[in-house]
Amino acid sequence: MAQEAAKTPKRSSPIKTAYLILYNAVSAILWATVLGRTVGANMLRGPAFVYVSTGDFVLWTQTLMIMDVLHGLFGMHCPNRPRHRCRPSRVPLRRCLGVQYPFPALCASPVYSSMLFAWSVTEVIRYTYLAVKLGGYEPAAFTWVRYSSYLVLYPLGITSEMIQMWRALAPAGHKFGPLYQLFLGVSLFVIWPIGAYVLIGHMNRQRRKVLAAQKSENMKATQ
Question: How large is the average pLDDT for residues 97-102?
Fold first, then answer.
């Protein structure tokens, strides 16, 4: 009996679950706002005005993502499906502080808009999925979108980030000196490619695992 009790997954408290649902719902709304501002500014005034409309809002929205890391450190898992935990995503704050914030002129490019589009759509999907899942629902179609949309959005976002870093290399040297320029160069040619490989590889494994489990459950349900 003791062994059976030890194997029983620990249920999350209703308060913690409610907090995580609220956190993910608020995060989804914030990123949906980023998406709306990005699309709206492009349609109404062009890409040169996107940073004016989104700059500080994106910075604070990204800052909130630090909570993802803290949730992971304190073991705040998705309680309704123990087979995969709510992993903290990479926090993109450094991209805003390291390139976009010091060099706002770079943000007049359509590349900045494509980067924000990739970030915001990715996070709206991810946070909405987690909020719905924590509420006890996991629609099959939404699960497929969650674990398939990255195949387009991640390459778009990562490529846009790298183009922005490339464009920042020269002004970084003039404004902050050769050491900062070297840091950006190492980030561009070493850290980002390795990080992209690891991140997309992780998502590929998660996709295979989650969709295979979903297929197995569907087959059992039809038997």
Answer: 76
Instruction: Say how far apart CA 152 and CA 155 lie, in whole Å.
Output: 6
CA distance 12 to 8: 12
Handedness of CA 34, 39, 41, 42 (dihedral sign): positive
Structure confidence at residue 4 (pLDDT): 42
Catalytic residue among 19, 161, 180, 197: 161
Q: Give residues with Cβ within 8 angstroms of 158, minimum separation 6.
A: 192, 196
161 catalytically annotated: yes
Q: Which two tokens stand for residue 41?
A: 């500014």
Q: What is the spatial distance between Cα 95 and Cα 195, in angstroms, rounded to a whole number?
A: 13
Q: Among the options 19, 101, 154, 180, which is catalytic?
A: 154
